[in-house]
Amino acid sequence: MRTATTKKDIIKSTPKKTVSKKAIAKKSKPKPTEIKLTAPLTSPAPAFPESSKTKQSQLIALLKDPRGATIQDLMQITGWQAHSVRGVISGIVRKRLGLNVIGRKIDGVHHYRIDPA
Fold first, then answer.
1. What's the whole-number mean pLDDT along residues 107-112?
2. What are the residue boundaries of the structural domains of the chain, listed by start?
3. CATH class of 55-114
4. DSSP notation for 23-35
């Protein structure tokens, strides 16, 4: 006696195609496009305006003081936790804004300041 085949049996019995990583990489490459400039390039506006209203600008103002500032000082003015303050110093102030931040340990407390040079 012969049994009836169902769609599930057919789907299970068909082998799956394997695709190499190279084939996937070839498909996902974007094609180069032409960029047409309609207006002359001008200098972009600063990414972060120097207003004393933002927490970041207050943090930078404290860091520009020759004595520097401690993490506790920066936490009080911004209301951020210590890891957030350190992240802004590293990611925004040092990397994005390109300012030279100097960190020193004085009497067991880390002091950070921006080098004016």
1. 92
2. 55-114
3. mainly alpha
4. HHHHHHPPPP---
